[in-house]
Amino acid sequence: MALKAWLQPGMLAGLLILGMALPQPAAAAPITVTDMAGRTVTLDGVPQRIALQDGRVGMDLALLNRAAPFQDVVVWNNLLKRAQPGLWALMVKKWPAAAAIPDMGFDDNGEVNVEQLIADKPQLLIAELRARPVLEQDGAMKALAEAGIKVLFVDDAEHPVPDAAKSVLLLGKVLGRAREAQAYYDFYQSHYQALRATIAKQPQPRPNVFVGALAGQHDANNCCFTHGNFGWGVLVQEVGARNLGSTVLHTPSGQIGMETLLAEQPDVIIMTGQGPSGAMAPMGFGSTATAIDARLAALEARPGFAQLKAVQAGRVYGIYHPFYSSVLNIVGLEYLAKFIYPAAFEDLDPGKTYADIMTRFTALPPGDAILGQQSAPHE
Predict the structure, then answer these.
(1) How far apart are the C-alpha atoms of 324 and 235, rounded to whole Å?
(2) What are the residues facing 19 on neighbouring strands?
(3) pLDDT, tens digit (0-9, with 9 covering 90-100), for 177-224
(4) Do domains 31-176 and 203-374 have the same CATH topology?
(5) Inter-residue contact 334 to 192 (CB < 8 Å)
(6) CB pairs under 8 A, 24+ apart, for 243-246?
């Protein structure tokens, strides 16, 4: 029997009504969060197209999505490649397609290519909190809003503790990865609280610490660039020590002369670096303890350093510079604690903490990184 003959008057309308009553695919539920700038941000659902103002947030994505952290990134400032080449090499080996993501080419001051962003049509731009003034002053925020592109601020640098870990929770909620985010947050907090408990028992006054940030980057003889109440300065204070830069600088970072160091006589000197680049200690991936020792010795041989009690006592250390602005800063905090309070943290192994993070929360291998090291004794 032909379908036309089988259908009686009114039956077709009934079938259409029945079809309309069948369950339909649910619309994506809106997601509303408060970002690290205190702004309320509402998204139509989990974004499928993302832009990164600072590509180092890619490490956060790797913690949240083991299989394909960059699959939704359509454009970025690839600061992983420029600022953390060793980590980037591990990432691009694991996820080769990441190398093809268009790079806007800016550094971490906050600039973005608005025209490129609008052309690539991301639903969301994830930006560091420190970039907010530039994004607002140059009109980028207004232009992106007019184009329907939402902006979400995370924070790995302005208030690295506790904001770096909280930023993972924020991203987990926005990207539909809340379970993974909570797992990393809990790991971070357990390590951080263990540090704090031991540090609280240390006697006063606490050690005076000088951080030579990127020591030797531009000039092996230049002394000395450091952080005040920013970056490494904040991390030093988070482990209960006195950051020399915070007491003598009136800016987030700046130069300190040897005469200031000689007057202040820090108890501990920590030189941040990554390499190989310039005369810095080549902390990080693909280095050797011998190469690091040689660079640290050369930095200690600069005029005036032999008169510093920290050098005389062998209290000079190298540490991986990118920890200051990273979701992995818990590893940096552990190295600082071990260097500043060696007796109290004799059994602490920050390298194991790093390896645990990589193997438990990402698909990346730990690699051959040397992330912290005491300068070898020398005459």
Answers:
(1) 7
(2) none
(3) 999 999 999 999 999 999 999 999 999 999 999 999 999 887 677 789
(4) yes
(5) no
(6) 243/209, 243/211, 244/208, 244/209, 244/210, 244/211, 245/210, 245/211
Q: What is the pLDDT of residue 379?
A: 60
**Contact of 309 with 287, CB cutoff 8 Å:** no
Contact by Cβ (8 Å): 227, 213:
yes
What is 31-176's CATH superfamily? Answer: Nitrogenase molybdenum iron protein domain (3.40.50.1980)
- One-letter amino acid for residue 258 of the chain: M
What are the extents of the domains in the chain?
Answer: 31-176, 203-374
Q: Three-state secondary structure along 262-329?
A: HHHCCCEEEEEECCCCCCCCCCECCCCHHHHHHHHHHHHCCCCHHHCHHHHCCCEEEEEHHHHHCCCH
Q: Following CA atoms 270, 275, 276, 282 in sequence, which dihedral angle do they give, to the nearest 10 degrees?
A: 40
Q: Is the CB of residue 279 less than 8 Å from the CB of residue 298?
A: yes
The owner of tokens 């309070």 is 341
Segment 342-349 mean pLDDT = 98
372 strand-pairing partners: 319
Query: 134-147, pLDDT tens digit by residue?
Result: 999 989 999 999 99
Fold of 203-374: Rossmann fold (3.40.50)
Q: Is the dihedral of CA 173, 177, 178, 184 positive or negative?
A: negative
**C-alpha 127 chain-centroid distance:** 12
Share of the chain above pLDDT 70, in %: 92
